[in-house]
Specification:
alpha+beta; four-stranded antiparallel beta sheet; 5 helices; 4 strands; disordered N terminus
Length: 147
């Protein structure tokens, strides 16, 4: 797994995109629905520019999950999500105002990680940079749920 900025030409662009979304977070609506194997999310904005930012961010994060190029590793939850990225199926479709994402895993622990990550992303939108600076612990991993 590659870590952080070194050798990651997309890191700076992804960070700027994330910061722009935080800056416009009050213009973003997000609905998270937990499923048995993960989550379905709908993240949209009535502002076409913000909707484009959402779409670009999700496309970038899908690539990061698929290529196991982690970000935000100082946060234990994000580090754990990327540690299990090969167990995550990430599908999205653009909507007129943003994106609909389905993230799933056949592993119960990874499904919990996906759900907790979705909740934290919603907290980022609610609380902004102060929430981003917090540490988010992953759920407890039971011995039978170790991928």
């Amino acid at each position: 797994m590659r870590h952080g900025r070194g050798g990651d030409p997309a890191f700076a662009a992804d960070r700027e995109l994330f910061q722009a979304l935080l800056q416009h977070r009050t213009a973003i609506q997000r609905v998270v629905t937990k499923t048995e194997h993960g989550v379905e999310t709908l993240t949209e904005s009535d502002d076409p520019n913000v909707a484009g930012l959402i779409q670009a961010h999700v496309a970038s994060m899908k690539k990061r999950v698929e290529n196991q190029q982690p970000i935000h590793l100082r946060d234990p939850l994000f580090a754990e999500v990327f540690r299990h990225a090969d167990w995550i199926t990430f599908v999205y479709e653009k909507t007129d105002k943003g994106v609909r994402v389905t993230e799933t895993s056949p592993d119960p622990y990874v499904a919990q990680l996906i759900q907790q990550h979705a909740e934290v992303v919603s907290l980022f939108l609610k609380h902004g940079p102060a929430e981003v600076r917090r540490q988010h612990e992953p759920p407890a991993q039971t011995p039978e749920a170790q991928p």
